[in-house]
Amino acid sequence: MIDPVTVTFGISGHRHVLTELLEITGEWRFLALALDFPHHQIRAIECNHHGDVRTCVEKMVEKWFELRPSPLSWSSLCTALRDSLVSRPDIAARIERKYHVFNSPPQ
User: Fold this and answer.
1) 43: domain CATH number?
2) What single string gives the DSSP state of each residue in 41-57?
3) DSSP 3-state assignment of 73?
């Protein structure tokens, strides 16, 4: 049996993550911080796509997939969404139900 906590996103994961984050607007910067983005990467995304929140979210997800050394998982995304700066437990709960993620610690 596969442990849903450690299941990674797979080949189509990038698209699935973007779909789940459609509601993220101004929180994208805080989500990037909760996902351990350095401040200079957040500023670069913002400067390159200022005013286009949707593109900023897309670029953040692309960078997350590109630069993170450890396996990315729904669980790590849910934990970041529950971070006090992001405060989107509603999206985390939806992802957990939809992708059968368990044991995401509440924040």
Assistant:
1) 1.10.533.10
2) HHHHHHHHTTT-HHHHH
3) strand
Q: What's the chain's Rg over C-alpha atoms?
A: 13
Question: For position 16, what pLDDT does the model report?
Answer: 82
Could you tell me if residue 81 is inside a domain? yes
Residues 3-42 pLDDT 10s: 343 444 443 567 788 888 989 988 999 999 999 999 999 9
Residue 60 has pLDDT above 50, yes or no: yes
Q: Is residue 4 domain-resident?
A: no
- Side-chain-side CA neighbours of 40 within 13 Å: the count stands at 0
Domain that residue 80 falls in: 14-99
Report CA 31 to chain centroid distance, whole Å: 7
The residue to which tokens 């080949």 are assigned: 11
Mean pLDDT of the chain: 82
Tally of structural domains, the chain:
1
Q: Is residue 67 part of a domain?
A: yes
Return phi, psi of residue 88, to 5°. -125, 60
